[in-house]
Amino acid sequence: MHIPDGFISLPVAGVTGLISVAALGIALKKSQDAFGVKRAPILGLTTAFVFAAQMINFPVAGGVSGHLLGGTLAAIILGSPWAGTICIATVLIIQAVLFADGGITALGSNILNMGVIGVWVGWGLTKILQQIFSTSRVRLPIIAGIAGAFSVIVASIACGIELVVSGTAIANLVLPAMTGVHILIGVGEGLITGSVITYLANVRPDLLPGEEHKTRSWLIPVIAVLLIASVLSLFASAFPDGLEKVAEDIGFIKLAENVRVSIPTPLADYGIEGLGQIGTSIAGLLGSGVCFAVAFGIAQLVKPKDA
Amino acid sequence: MLNLSLPLRLQLCLVLVIGTAFLEKGAWIYLVIYGIIALVWSFFQRVPLRRLTGLLGTELIFLLFMALPLGWEKASFLLARSLICLLTMNSFLLTLPPHSFGIALKSLPLPQGLKENLLLTGQYLEILLDEVKRMQRGAQLRGVNGKAVWLRYASAAMIGSLYIRSLERSERVYAAMVARGYRGQLPQDSTLTRKELILIITAIAAATMITATSYFT
Q: What is the pTM of this model?
């Protein structure tokens, strides 16, 4: 998934670069304790480990190969997504500067996709699944495996969106292709992440986060809503709903076209004209955001003053 | 070999690499200019040619798989550009005195945490590779040979075991570093002199000019 030089436009490189620099800056500030005597070797070694693991490509179907992204694995071993971001960003910097694996101009995009989105989706999903099922270390490998697989898919969608916005590829082609290939790579990622964590849980359970860790209560619904609106919406069925199907069969569907006043809607049919599948994701995110803002606004208006 | 300090060499390399990477696609003339500078740079650093060609060859094979599907015209430029970047950075790394990467790294204007992690990653990669060799030797001594031997190295227990072994060793190495005065950065001074600073600023200005011109011609 390493984007080489020349695949993304300068504006996309600039914007993603700024986001990555900001994310890395915050991560470095939030991970002060990761550089102490006790934690620094774990961070350094995990970075070296992910770097080595990314060099080993495993074959997936159709003449394609993939490699471990390691964001979820790193975040879980390090016990912090901030440290996970530093870990993956360091790997990507070394790969780009010393091995020309991933372009220097695309470094910002690669850090954003793998070091920020890949790590945070994996970490967030792990926490959500732990809240739903169990925080026990016994279930952590399965949960981490699922989260790892999903993080690869989301990161690949982000990569596809950057290619589309850069004008390198068309959304209708690149998004399904990237998602399809990375679902297979995600399976590999999930298996490796789950297996390694199983081993660590048996041999060095002290390396893994304790069972008392709890996420903030608002984080779960927010991440779940974002994932459903932006990612799962891409896989929504294109078939008509019950009413539309009946209207088509009986023949009164045309009545909908004969409306007296036509009001233009920017996100008609949960999409944005000309943006294809990305439009669905963006529409989903915008819709969720607007719903939240309206509901939050109403709640602020009607809540008792002493609440 | 050029009598330049390590921080200066690293910063000049980075200026050359970043300038090359940001060239406009298809700007062959400017790529040739950077190519000549990179060649002269490697010549004066007296890089061991055999190791350099070996490294470049391996790295270019990986790049070929990625670039060729783009079509020959696009791929050839990307490959030439990557080759210049790799030539520059490998020339620096192959002429680096042992364990001196940290001194060069210290001079870079990057956050301290990131520099520390880069330094430790470089050191621990050696440990990781060394542990792989030890485990391979151990497995061979126990009679684990044959065609399916790679399966053993790919198994989760082996990967996990490699991680734990390397971690324990790296913790010992880190403790030894701390005992010798390491406090998140190396105790050696790594600042640029006034002359070196002027040289760096001149190099940045020249690289910016070459790269910017590639977009307007």
A: 0.74
